[in-house]
């Protein structure tokens, strides 16, 4: 499923009408009916519905929704919140259909009267403003939105809540916070931005009959369960440990042995055939106690932290993960440099490795084999040399810039994880919950991702599926046996087996 900007959505509409010959009034009818059908699933006929109708396509959808629900016997009041001259084109045609159906249309004349209507409604459907809004709301819509935000009624938005930007990069806005959003044709970027996502509530895409085969595809896609089913690695009946990859996990220190242990254990749980842990000698006893299946190779240490290269070299591995618990001593940077220069397999860099990677981006850029960076927002901002709020305002743009300029895969972790390829294609994976907001979760994800990379021909598919496996395991555990408060990273590792039963062969 594509994720679109406002501009891309307008292009789709134009292609449908001008190139495919679909009348705009038909698309509007389809949109309104699709939203109305979804409203019926949430609302019963005893509840009082108020439809607030503005200008443009969003307002036109509102006329169709109100007419459709009235036709089906719902109690609906329709209020036009903009002057008559603002209703034009296809929206005006549907306004005429609404009135010709012998239904009553009210107009916003006094805000107090509208506020009383809101107070006497169980459900308010917002079709006031669509994706073309720029800047802060103006009177009287700003006052309507402010009043609605304090109301206890069920609030449903058509396409996008009024006042909320469709694109990333907008931080100064006033918008309506709704319980449900039925968005038209495709999700909008702002549904995945930290500042704007909470305004949408639960959201669902409604199909309106656009000619999908003809539409210009966006470079952003939502990774869905059907994508997982189509790309998840399957085991051959004649498989042996060698064909599922030999992984090297580099990291750990005397004071942080758990990071590398969790990563390696997660990698083996996720299907890696063999795992070697490269760590300091003082950390190995703790690591070995948690993952007896892994072999060990020693790294020079100073005061419990790694400062040198791996004793046995780095040849013969199918993928390397580096950074978890390795520390920030200067010698650790030399270790990362050595791995990047000497290895010929995919290298995943996480945690402390990302701290050192900032100084080695030139080395990263010239590498022939894939490099995967897996930062959380703080680490990503450090890599880019910007502030975290600046990153969070434009995570798609910054991720694409880093991936394209440096030729790397970027996994920007968060409630909506953004996976970006060196070509600039982006995927959003939304599984998981707040139970993952705990130390060690990123280490576990790194192990899963490395295992997926070794079992899948497409690095992008591997990263998307690894994020899905990680998040879905947390979701299942907090449904069955844990809360989001007590869930530990080690619980996720041990919970992988049940999730894998669903998707692996």
Automatic annotation (TrEMBL):
Pfam families: Carb_kinase, YjeF_N. This is Bifunctional NAD(P)H-hydrate repair enzyme. Residues 9-216 form the YjeF N-terminal domain. The lineage of its organism: Bacteria, Bacillati, Bacillota, Bacilli, Bacillales. Keywords: ATP-binding, Isomerase, Lyase, Metal-binding, Multifunctional enzyme, NAD, NADP, Nucleotide-binding, Potassium. InterPro entries: Carbohydrate_kinase_pred_CS, CARKD, Nnr, Ribokinase-like, YjeF_N_dom, YjeF_N_dom_sf. Binds 1 potassium ion per subunit. Residues 224-503 form the YjeF C-terminal domain. AMP binds at residues 413-417, 442. Homotetramer. Its cofactor is Mg(2+); K(+). Bifunctional enzyme that catalyzes the epimerization of the S- and R-forms of NAD(P)HX and the dehydration of the S-form of NAD(P)HX at the expense of ADP, which is converted to AMP. This allows the repair of both epimers of NAD(P)HX, a damaged form of NAD(P)H that is a result of enzymatic or heat-dependent hydration. Catalyzes the epimerization of the S- and R-forms of NAD(P)HX, a damaged form of NAD(P)H that is a result of enzymatic or heat-dependent hydration. This is a prerequisite for the S-specific NAD(P)H-hydrate dehydratase to allow the repair of both epimers of NAD(P)HX. The gene is nnrE. It comes from Thalassobacillus hwangdonensis. Its EC number is 4.2.1.136, 5.1.99.6. Gene3D superfamilies: 3.40.1190.20, YjeF N-terminal domain.
């Amino acid at each position: 499923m594509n994720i679109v900007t406002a501009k891309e959505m307008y292009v789709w509409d134009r292609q449908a009408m001008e190139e495919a010959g679909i009348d705009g009034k038909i698309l509007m009818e389809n949109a309104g009916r699709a939203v109305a059908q979804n409203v019926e699933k949430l609302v019963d006929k005893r509840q009082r519905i108020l439809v607030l109708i503005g200008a443009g396509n969003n307002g036109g959808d509102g006329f169709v929704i109100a007419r459709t629900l009235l036709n089906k016997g719902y109690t609906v009041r329709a209020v036009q919140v903009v002057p008559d001259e603002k209703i034009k084109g296809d929206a005006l045609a549907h306004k005429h259909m609404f009135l010709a159906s012998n239904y009553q249309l009210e107009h916003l004349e006094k805000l107090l009267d509208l506020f009383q209507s809101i107070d006497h409604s169980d459900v308010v459907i917002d079709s006031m403003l669509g994706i073309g809004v720029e800047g802060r709301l103006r009177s009287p819509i700003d006052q309507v939105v402010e009043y609605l935000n304090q109301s206890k009624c069920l609030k449903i938005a058509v396409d996008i809540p009024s006042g909320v930007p469709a694109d990333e990069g907008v931080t100064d806005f006033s918008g309506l916070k709704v319980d449900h959003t039925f968005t038209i044709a495709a999700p909008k970027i702002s549904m995945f931005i930290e500042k704007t996502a909470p305004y949408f509530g639960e959201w669902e895409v409604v199909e309106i009959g656009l000619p999908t085969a003809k539409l210009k595809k966006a470079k952003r896609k939502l990774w869905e369960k059907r994508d997982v089913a189509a790309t998840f690695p399957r085991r051959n009946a004649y498989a042996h440990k060698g064909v599922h990859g030999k992984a090297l996990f580099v990291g750990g220190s005397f004071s942080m042995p758990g990071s590398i242990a969790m990563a390696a254990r997660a990698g083996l749980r996720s299907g890696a055939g063999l795992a070697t842990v490269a760590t300091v000698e003082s950390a190995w006893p703790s690591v070995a106690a948690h993952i007896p299946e892994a072999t060990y190779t020693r790294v020079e240490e100073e005061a419990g932290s790694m400062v040198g290269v791996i004793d046995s070299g780095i040849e013969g591995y199918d993928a390397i993960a580096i950074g978890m618990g390795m520390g920030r001593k200067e010698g650790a940077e030399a270790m990362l440099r050595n791995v990047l220069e000497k290895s010929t397999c995919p290298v995943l860099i996480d945690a402390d490795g990302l701290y050192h990677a900032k100084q080695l981006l030139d080395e990263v850029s010239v590498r022939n084999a894939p490099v995967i960076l897996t930062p959380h927002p703080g680490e990503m901002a450090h890599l880019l040399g910007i502030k975290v709020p600046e990153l969070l305002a434009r995570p798609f743009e910054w991720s694409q810039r880093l991936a394209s300029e440096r030729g790397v895969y970027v996994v920007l972790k968060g409630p909506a994880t953004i996976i970006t390829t060196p070509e600039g294609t982006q995927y959003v994976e939304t599984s998981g919950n707040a139970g993952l907001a705990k130390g060690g979760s990123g280490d576990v994800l790194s192990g899963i991702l490395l295992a997926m990379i070794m079992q899948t021909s497409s690095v992008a598919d591997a990263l998307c599926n690894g994020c899905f496996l990680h998040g879905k395991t947390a979701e299942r555990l907090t449904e069955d046996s844990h809360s989001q408060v007590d869930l530990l990273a080690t619980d996720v590792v041990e919970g992988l087996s049940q999730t894998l039963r669903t998707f692996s062969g």
